[in-house]
Design goal:
Number of strands: 8
CATH class of the largest domain: Alpha Beta
CATH topology of the largest domain: D-amino Acid Aminotransferase, Chain A, domain 1
Strand order of the largest sheet: 3-2-5-8
Strand content: 15-25%
Number of helices: 7
Shape: globular
Order of helices and strands: HHEHEEEHEHHHEEE
Length: about 240
Amino acid sequence: MSAKSEIEKLRREVERHNRLYHVEAQPEITDYDFDQMLRQLQELEAKHPELADPNSPSSRVGGQPLVGEFKTVVHDPPMLSIENAYSIEELREWDERVRRGLGREAVEYEAELKIDGVSIDLLYENGALARAATRGDGARGDDVTQNVRTVRSLPLRIDTKVRRLGVRGEIYISKVDFAKLNAEIEEAGLRGAEIEEAGLRGAEIGEAGLRGAEIEESGLRGAEIGEAGLRGGGGPEGQ
């Protein structure tokens, strides 16, 4: 087997086991076996730098987060805010605006619980993660691709024939991981400014967190992603 074939096979296997563990909670191998597989991939990639891929699962560990200046991304279409409704009357008024805007009398709605994290805009090109951007002011955000790649539950590659696929969702910390993070803070005896300086601000991720969050070998700490919307930007090649 060529080095390229072996690296590609290892990348697929590492990503599969990563998803089984972090997303589906159904691991098939031990942590030790996973670490050995990942180490084998890292060693092969080090021997063959010409085969480097920013979306390799090895990029989730040991990478340096970007801090400071970030490239500006223009959102097309803009990332608009969700409207609030605090009474049945306000909800009915919103429904009337929706039906009036659509020019229809009958409209069906689908509702789900809102994950309150930090909005993120993902762009996949030919199935590979090409860019991740914060919401910013809705029209423009910051390119935080390198940092977001460390989120373990985020697929770096997806199976799609769409040339450009946009995914919008929320990056958040689960209650379980939030409790673990707070326990670590208490164990370390950190308080106030010390917590901020150490990068252990667990109360929220926030856009500032994506620009300067603590990213260790374990990745963006405890962060997960929930997808909320899709948009296609082109069919398969030749269409």
